[in-house]
Amino acid sequence: MDLNSLLKLRHTSNRARRWLGFISLAAGILAWWLIARYGGLPAFILPSPADVWTRFLRALVNGELARHTGATLLEVSLGLFSGAIFATMLGYVLAKSRMLEQILSPYLVASQAVPLVAIAPLLVLWFGPGIFSKILICGLIVFFPVLVNTVVGIRAVPPAYYDLMRSLHASRGQILRYLEIPAALPIFFGGLRIGATLSVIGAVVGELVGANTGLGVLINIGRGTFDTPMVFVAVFTLVALALFLYGLVAWFERRLLNWQEHIHQ
Amino acid sequence: MLKKIVLIMLGLALGLSACGTPKSANGALTKISLPMGYIPNIQFAPFYIAVEKGYLKDAGIEITFDYKFETDGVALVGANNVPFAVVSGEQVPLARAQGLPVVYVAAWYQKYPVAVVSKTSQNIQTPADLKGKKIGLPGLFGANYIGLDALLYSAGLTEKDVTLDSIGFNQVEALAADREQAASVYTANEPVQLKAQGYNINELQVADYVKLASNGIITNEKTIAENPNLVRNFVKAFLHGLSDTIANPDEAYTISIKYVDTLAGADQKVQKEILARSIDEWKTDRLGISDPQAWQNMNDTLLKMGSITKPLDVSKMFTNNFIP
To answer: Cβ separation of B75 and A125 shorter than 8 Å?
Structure first.
């Protein structure tokens, strides 16, 4: 078998895998429709895909979905950005200082044991019901995975590479730019991908506690009026938002790490 | 079969057990899980009395209090997973508009227990004074929201005339810190706490301006059709507890300590004041009775708010047939 045939086979296999995803999705929707249709359940318990689709269109046309999604997206974007920036900076410092890591570790680990759902009402109380408390909750939830992966990524740089850089009289800035950042990026992006999906949860937790707009508010309104299709619409929009952010991070990852592919080739 | 499996799964997901389903065994007590819509609180004293004095037992009922979200209780009753729930009046039209066959069978509160409070420095003395004010409320749902809108309508105002601020259940703190100019609260709770902390406040009670169907007990059409005696007995036992609580608040308070963990260590003066104010909202010539006009007003308010899109048959929302 020549190289062209191998590449063709790989391409076909990739296409088949993509189809598998669609088939799995279609099967899931079909199963949902069957349960809703023949399970004899009213829409307030389990709305059918058609109910949810109709409600989605209504929310889209009257603008409520765009308004609430926009609010959540803004909170998530700012929370993800600020949380990731702070986590990366602290992560780098911790990676360089074992002593500082030992001092701060108990706090950092303990912070992860605190359920955000429990302290979200307090954060809303302390920082007000506006956007800041939501950004803070997002940032907090993003912080830990990005921090840990930054520390691990920086520490994963082989010591021999540092020796090489020093032998070339590289400055600290050059070591950071040409060695540490490129070497740590793959692991850092792993943390950022997790953070991106978690940030959506963070925003919704804040919105459920107290907010005027956002998909969490839409869920609250849907639950309060027994509009279960609306709850489904909001939940699916959140899933789409998380997938979008995950995809965006993955896209950046591919763009920034394409040098790895060249090396492997 | 499919329906059965799904219902079982949903029941498990909602944290239910078989004890929530009404059963009539020979001579055995019917075990009922009762969604309360709030955390354990002195305001639930009539229910605690009905248990402790054996009124429910005499009615053939063994009860477990289930302190979950009000809307979950309504959904469970609507799906016939539990026979009763304690809910606020607006829940009934909202639920029926979405096809939940719930029916209100006993009025507990005769006055809608929501008020808008503000520091006296804000000089808010009538609903019309709310114009242009920033008003905090837990969220755009539930009794606080509906009561506030009803109050605004009574003065010819709408939501557009004020700024609504969803702040969660932080009304006391928000008012104390002057983050909000007014807040929508439960009449028996936050005003008492604010006064106890030394704040001078003005209160606009919704019930003084419009009569709305308030908190009470709901069941579903199936239970009424198939087990009317269960409904009758439950309502009778509850009303007995309600009557005793009104007659002897001190005794009710002492009994409630067993059910409300925080009560023993709480400020007794404040808690007794909460109970006294609640009792004031329960009192009527005939306990448990529903006023049809209050249901019509609720229907009209929800329509005006856009929470329901078409008028509902008010006569199907409630019944007074089970009131002794």
So the answer is: no
If asked whether residues B189 and B101 sit together in one domain, one would say no
Out of B208, B240, B272, pick the residue that ends a domain. Answer: B208
Q: Which residues of chain B have pLDDT under 70?
A: 1-27
By CB neighbour count within 10 A (0-12 exposed, 13-18 middle, 19+ buried), where does A69 fall?
Answer: buried
Interface test with B, best of A44, A64, A230 (most B CBs within 10 A): A44
Rounded Cα distance between B269 and B256, Å, is 15
Provide the domain limits for residue B140: 114-208
Q: Does A124 touch chain B (CB under 8 A)?
A: yes
What ipTM was predicted for this assembly? 0.72
Q: Which residues pair with B318 in a beta bridge?
A: B104
CATH number for the domain running over A48-264: 1.10.3720.10
Say yes or no for a CB contact (<8 Å) between A129 and B165.
Answer: yes
Considering B208, B227, B259, which residue would you say is the last residue of a domain? B208
Residue B279's contacts (CB-CB under 8 Å, 6 or more residues apart) are B245, B246, B249
A128 interface with B at CB cutoff 8 Å: yes
The alpha carbon of residue B140 is apart from the nearest alpha carbon of chain A, in Å, by 7
- Best probe of the A interface among B8, B76, B98, by most A CBs < 10 A, is B98
Tell me the residue ranges of DSSP E strands in B49-175: 61-69, 85-87, 102-107, 114-119, 134-137, 163-166
| pLDDT tens-place string over residues B145-203 | 999 999 999 999 999 999 999 888 888 988 988 989 999 999 988 998 898 889 999 99
> For residue B19, what pLDDT is reported?
41
**pTM score, whole prediction:** 0.80
